[in-house]
Design a protein that fits this description.
Alpha-Beta Plaits; about 230 residues
């Protein structure tokens, strides 16, 4: 295990998401599950269930105490240049009408409700220049190997957002996985206190390890600031 810097050089800089953190341990965990348990990746356990979840053995240093453990891996430290809202749409394809059999009766496709309901949904886009950047403590070769299979970051990759051109994983002289320059760089359990050199930080309910949205992964934490 050694300190690392990981960069994801973006194809065009647009990533769908509401916050710029994009925890790398969560991205790596998803890739590990995709490779080793594809059935769990494509059909994960439903929210609220406690069975069927996989504890991924990431090539990162594990820290923390008891059930408040976490991986030694920062959140993304590259601030977005700007953000804006676009929209995605879903509607019934009129060309499919010729395949509908109303059995000699009059009928219509209901787009106001049900399975074929039409949607116009807002989508928040963060625009980054260059690359996303994380810091971690882990096995360089194994982190590189996992990164090679990751083609996108964030939501709606099928619509062209978040594509990664290439990854770079290099040794780093210092451990910035938890703090840097007097600021924390990832969510840290509040009950364990702030790292040395950090005097103050915001607090909120947030995840401390993948999957971050799962209730069992969440705690009251110190959160990094969104850098301008």
């Amino acid at each position: 295990m050694q300190p690392l810097r990981i960069r994801a050089y973006l194809l065009d800089g647009r990533i769908a998401g509401t916050e710029p953190f994009f925890p790398l341990d969560s991205i790596l965990a998803a890739e590990w599950i995709r490779r080793n348990h594809p059935e769990n990746y494509y059909e994960p356990p439903p929210p609220g269930t406690k069975e069927g979840w996989i504890e991924v053995p990431l090539p990162l240093e594990r820290r923390g105490r008891g059930d408040k453990w976490y991986w030694a891996c920062s959140f993304n430290m590259t601030p977005p240049v700007t953000e804006y809202v676009t929209y995605w749409h879903r509607r019934f394809d009129d060309h499919m009408e010729r395949y509908i059999d109303f059995k000699s009766r009059r009928g219509k496709v209901d787009e106001s409700s049900g399975r074929l309901k039409a949607y116009r949904m807002p989508l928040n886009i963060l625009l980054f220049a260059g690359a996303l950047e994380w810091y971690a403590v882990g096995n360089l070769g194994e982190v590189q190997e996992l990164c090679r299979g990751i083609v996108s970051v964030g939501k709606k990759s099928a619509q062209g957002y978040g594509f990664v051109d290439c990854w770079e994983v290099v040794p780093w002289p210092e451990d910035w996985s938890e703090s840097w320059n007097g600021r924390i760089t990832r969510a840290l359990p509040a009950e364990q206190g702030l790292p040395p050199g950090v005097k103050v930080a915001n607090m909120r309910q947030y995840g401390i390890r993948p999957p971050y949205w799962r209730r069992e992964s969440q705690a009251i934490v110190f959160m990094p600031e969104v850098r301008e």
